[in-house]
């Protein structure tokens, strides 16, 4: 039969000599890409009867889905929580720089701030696809200000707020706009939080529990009302106690609705979470673990003073503290570093480490049919990595958007 080029005249690229992360296993097979999507080669062979237009030898590399960072406060001198007349250049800089660390999509995160900051910054951020200009923006993560004073961490106490009689209207008045918001972190023990959680989830916004002194029953109630995420597990919450494990207890709770899964963020930078705590969480609930950087403006910069919203931060090596204190204030680790540390600390499989930064955040946001896997017809956002999980090249929509200088195809 003659070739059928009527399906698409766009070029087909075949990535060969590689191991693909697919169905939770690294498999020796080729990856086929056309028009920004991953192709089913059987349909190509039998329906269209055409070969690849271009073959690329990956030299034994691992091909994995692009990383998705759902909690990143900034980096490379950019602080997303600073109100400027034009926040777009800063976001563009970060989105470009994180390509070298394997991040193909992210959620710019704003920490607790005055309403004036939200009103100025949020209208300037919009969801966008990734490409040569940088990683895609999936929507904003608003961490606070509806959080606990006792577990405020690096968040400024004078900016914290509670839900009054208006509840959801209080939240709207504080943020001013929810059009680009994808995740909201709040403390579930706050009065009227349940109705706020229900309203947010009804609008497709993910609710995360964090910076909280909630007990387990309060956390379970929040999940029953729609919350699906825990912000940086173990950090800024009550420590585990055997009679009431608090939010941590959600990892093994039997009160989670059958149709619902709880995910939890982990800052795997070797600073925020002891390796033993990483292992405990991973073994208790491996399918819910989502690696996040919680990166601040100092990521990628030399030690010194930086900002985190309204606070001044002092960075010393991999440690960053609120100036003059020993209060940790976000991380300066990159996502690829977090993936490698998680692999080493837990002795998990390579597949597990990679999925914690790709599949799981995609599942959390409900976009696993588009991103976070290498399944057929998903977005061709993927990475080439060596055996030690160092990024060799980053692809978005099938285009190479970053490559290590020493690596060629």
UniProtKB/TrEMBL annotation:
Residues that bind Zn(2+): 143, 211, 232
Coiled-coil positions: none
Phylogenetic lineage: Eukaryota, Metazoa, Chordata, Craniata, Vertebrata
Protein name: N-acetylglucosamine-6-phosphate deacetylase
Lineage top rank: taxon: Eukaryota
NCBIfam families xref list: nagA
Active site: 294
Family the UniProt entry places it in: Belongs to the metallo-dependent hydrolases superfamily. NagA family.
Residues bound to substrate: 154, 235-236, 243, 272, 328-330
Pathway membership: Amino-sugar metabolism; N-acetylneuraminate degradation
Catalytic reactions of this protein: N-acetyl-D-glucosamine 6-phosphate + H2O = D-glucosamine 6-phosphate + acetate
Residue ranges of every copy of the Amidohydrolase-related domain listed in the record: 62-398
Species whose genome carries this gene: Sphenodon punctatus
Gene Ontology terms for molecular function: metal ion binding; N-acetylglucosamine-6-phosphate deacetylase activity
Cofactors, names only: a divalent metal cation
CDD domains attached to this UniProt entry: NagA
Cofactor binding note: Binds 1 divalent metal cation per subunit.
E.C. code: 3.5.1.25
